[in-house]
Amino acid sequence: MRTFIANLFFLVPFLLLAQENQNQYSLDEAIAYALEHNYSVINAKRDMTDAQKQKWETIADGLPQINGAVNYQNQLKQQVVQLPGEIADGEPGTFVEVVFGQPQQVTATATLTQQIFDGSYIVGVQATKAFLSFSENNKEKTDLDIRKAVVEAYGNVLVAQESVEISEKNKATLEKNLYETKKVYENGLGDEESVDQLQITLSSVDNQLKNARRLEKITLQMLNLMMGLPIETPTVLTESLESLTQSKITPELVNADFNVENNVDYKLANNLNEQRFYELKLAKSRALPTLNAFINYGGLSFSDSFSFFDGGQDWFGFSNFGVDLSIPIFSSLKRSASTQRAKIALEQAKTQLTEAEEQIRLQLENAKSNYTLAIEEYGTSKDNLALAERIENKNQIKYAEGIATSFELRQAQTQLYSSQQEYLQSMADVINRKTELETILNQ
Prior knowledge:
Blueprint: H1 2-22, E1 24-25, H2 27-37, H3 39-60, E2 65-74, E3 80-84, E4 95-99, E5 104-117, H4 119-186, H5 192-227, E6 236-237, H6 241-247, H7 264-285, E7 290-303, E8 316-326, H8 334-400, H9 406-441
Parallel strand pairs: 1-6
Antiparallel strand pairs: 2-5, 3-4, 5-7, 7-8
Helix pairs in contact: 2-4, 3-4, 4-5, 4-7, 4-9, 5-9, 6-9, 7-8, 8-9
């Protein structure tokens, strides 16, 4: 027993560590997890499975079909028929009341049907390939959208965490300044305005810190949702905002080769074009004849009582074979109107495909510009932050020596806080703008 307890205490730290590691994710690990567990991704996979089943459903319509039927009738009051009396050696002009058959009967049949020719069936089978392609492309778009959403959510969490750290440092510095300024004022060497100025700045920073902590929780919950985790999961991010930003700076990406046919939005627009093409073929196929064949076999039994399952019950078999040919002759131009509408829809789809291609090319140029701007603004905001820190540090020294006023210090601090937020946002922009460009390039 002691050995068991000792081993248990030995294993607990490792179990806790393993559990903690399970909730740690780099950006690539978070994306990989989301592409397996995100709710939209799961349903997109189900849509693909559904498309496969629908394909077989369409094909099966043209394969042999066997159906069985059982019919039971109980004539509670049988119909009476009057026949001429001469049949029963009666007087001419008289009638004999006769009941035909037995009150209960059962008919059991099995019918085999086979479609021989149907133009709409042929078109339907051809269209299944386009439908499967649409399901695959829709799954691809879902994956790209989820990847983009995870990157954005991951970056937002990092920004929120950095914002909390920066706000905590700023608050600590301000509290120190306010404490020292109060002491100076209490000793009669300072003015009350300096205390008030610092108190205003501290209150503002304290509110920013509270908001940053709330945003940290909300952004983490959003990331969990995108990954397909319960939103209260204590997920730990192993990337830092700075290192992730540096890894996303690849200016050569704007010169990458682009084939519009690889873009998922173009693929989906092309799927619509294919769908309209098959709809036109379907409309034309309705003018063709259809040919079907069938053969059936059945049994018929009669009885005064329900004895159809008894061993000595008589069953009378029957069977027949037939061919059904249906030829469309005249529909008052209904089929013609349907075909013309299908042609119009196809022309519209072609126009939409051209429009989609142009829109994608415009989106690409816009994404390139935004990504380039994000990199430039990141460099600028980084330099501006360094300058703002230097200015604020100098004003701290001047204020401590009595050279600078509290208003000048507050101005430098406000400028620093603004530069810090701009720097954080610039890093998030680099990450997000690159993801947008990669999505269009389908990389």
